[in-house]
Design brief:
Elements (H helix, E strand, L loop, with lengths): L2 E5 L3 H13 L3 E5 L2 H11 L3 E5 L7 H10 L8 E5 L4 H9 L4 E4 L4 H19 L2
Helix pairs in contact: 2-3
Length: 128
């Protein structure tokens, strides 16, 4: 079972994604902020992190940078999840090491499709 860590400071989004992704067969963990996300990523070793950008204390950009420089978490795929729709935000996310950038509001089909694409891409890289 694939593990997904959802990081967002909005409890409604965390609860919604936990329910929906859980129904699709994923094991879902949540974190309400950057520091909690870093801790959970180390402990749980998720197969994917869905990371909000705009959060208090530590934003998603800082979390992504810290995940990428730590060899234990550097290989975990991270998809940015944000209400910021500017092209430069998308470009920055990909340049910083995110595997995808999903704009809020998103459709459930779009989100599930992107999650499946990330897992297919990761499995393609690890297959002989």
């Amino acid at each position: 079972m694939k593990k997904i860590l959802v990081v967002d400071d909005e409890e409604d989004i965390l609860h919604f994604l936990e329910l929906v992704l859980g129904e699709k067969g994923y094991e879902v963990m949540t974190a309400v902020g950057g520091q909690e996300a870093l801790t959970r990523a180390h402990i749980e070793k998720p197969d994917l992190i869905l990371l909000d950008i705009m959060m208090p204390q530590m934003d998603g950009w800082e979390v992504l940078k810290l995940l990428r420089i730590d060899e234990e978490t550097a290989v975990i795929p991270v998809a940015m999840l944000s209400a910021r729709t500017e092209a430069r935000d998308r470009v920055q996310g990909l340049q910083e090491g995110a595997v995808d950038y999903i704009c809020k509001p998103f459709s459930l089909q779009e989100l599930l499709g992107k999650i499946e694409a990330v897992f297919a891409q990761v499995e393609g890289k690890t297959s002989p």
